[in-house]
Every structure is written in C-alpha cells, then in structure tokens.
Amino acid sequence: MTNTEYRALFLEELTRIAPDIEADTVADDEHIQDDLGLDSMDVLNLVTALHTRLGFDIPEGDYPRIETPAKAAAYLAERAAASEGA
How much is the average pLDDT of 22-44? Predict the structure, then answer.
C-alpha cells in the first residue's frame, strides 16, 4: 500500500469512530483530538479498529505518531513494512 492508501484507510476508520467528520474535509495536519474533537476513548477505539484492519498493534507510546492523517499514513506504512519483515 502507498501512503495515500494508508491515509484513506486511516480516514475511513476515523469516520467510523466519529461519523460527524467528513473525510474529504480533513487536512493532513489536523490533530485528531485538538482539531477534530476525538476524546481518549475515541482514540482507543480508532487504535483498536486499525489493529483489527491491519493486524498489528499500535503501542500507546506511539499514539502521537497517529495524531494527524499525514503522520498516521507514514506510521502505518512503516509498521506494516516492519510487520511484513518480521
């Protein structure tokens, strides 16, 4: 998958968790809590959904690496590559 595809996947799961968010209006640098209004339970649900969809864990210490769509896409691509190589 490309970063663009990981971004789309991230936004798809984000909008499932927060259906009031429109994926096509979310900028790459919008923070999921500060700008989009997710609370800590929403973030946990998002992490769980990403784990289910992609098959790898996202440790709590890495949550800042998925705080924007751009960061999330890069992180998910990196984690997927690492899990494939494991």
Answer: 97
